Amino acid sequence: PSVARFQSQAPTHSVRTVPKDVVVHPIVLLNAVDHYNRVARDTKRRVVGILLGEISKGTYDITASFAVPFEEDEKDPSIWFLDHNFLENMHAMFKKVNAREKIIGWYSTGPRIRPGDINIDKLIRRYTPTPCYVIIDVKPVSMKIPTTAYYAAEESKGDGNPPQWTFKHMPSEIGALEAEEVGVEHLLRDVKDTTISTLANQVTSKLAAIRGLQERLGEIDTYLKQVLDGKLPINHQIMYMLQDVFNLLPNIAVEELVRAMSIKTNDMSLAIYLASIIRSVVALHNLINNKLVNKEREKSAEEKEKERERESKDAKEKKSAAGKEGAKAEKEKDKPNADK
Length: 340
Hints:
Order of helices and strands: EHEEEEHEHEEEEHHHH
Number of strands: 10
Helix content: 40-55%
Structural class: alpha/beta
Radius of gyration: 38 Å
Number of helices: 7
């Protein structure tokens, strides 16, 4: 049996929302990665947290999250413990900051659904009628979106047995407000290697985007082949979306479009070429200025050294002249004594 202790019961909700999709904000991903690195880094454990946000017309807009103390038996995943009092206290504090953010689901670092997850989802249903379950991949190895979203629903197999709760997949995407986009841009700017030029960064980003597009096209190709072979039923919604994608593709057989693309490419290449030349000229100009400044500093240092040597020489000459005058005066003073 699952281990879950409750000292106070949160209010239950009766209105259930039909889930459509999930929008995860960047701050949620950062919180999940930080939670994993603090608690379960270099281990096989996973971490669990609560998702906060709003639900509008079946869309789960996840804008914040917080970690929850969670333990489970490695040998028997159905035995687990989640700190219920900590969850309620954290939710109360978040509610004081932003009353619009409510508990709408929970997350884990997976990387897959485990047997005890349906019982954890049952616990979260004490706070929201239809919680979403988001598995966040903290160690992505491909260009895919690092989130996979599910929701629990009762499913009857029609064999006379009572319906059972199972997880159903729902689409997920990464979304951000304008302020969040600016913050993420600054964060990525700090993370990137400053020794690499902006052009190299742009090429790297383009290459990553092309790889991601290639993976998406591979998934579409696999799906269509399975539909043709009869392994999967046809989904008209997916077909409509694919048709929209193909309709948006430009017709490269039109001569005007090819000419416009060539002109645009040539203009961009010319701009890159001019920018490279200007950058080289500016770098050379700065190098010459730096050399002139260093030369002036060396010349000034040499003049100061010569002035110092001249002053030292003058001081020695004055001292020597003073010594000679003193000796002459002593000799003249001793001469009258000798005459007497």
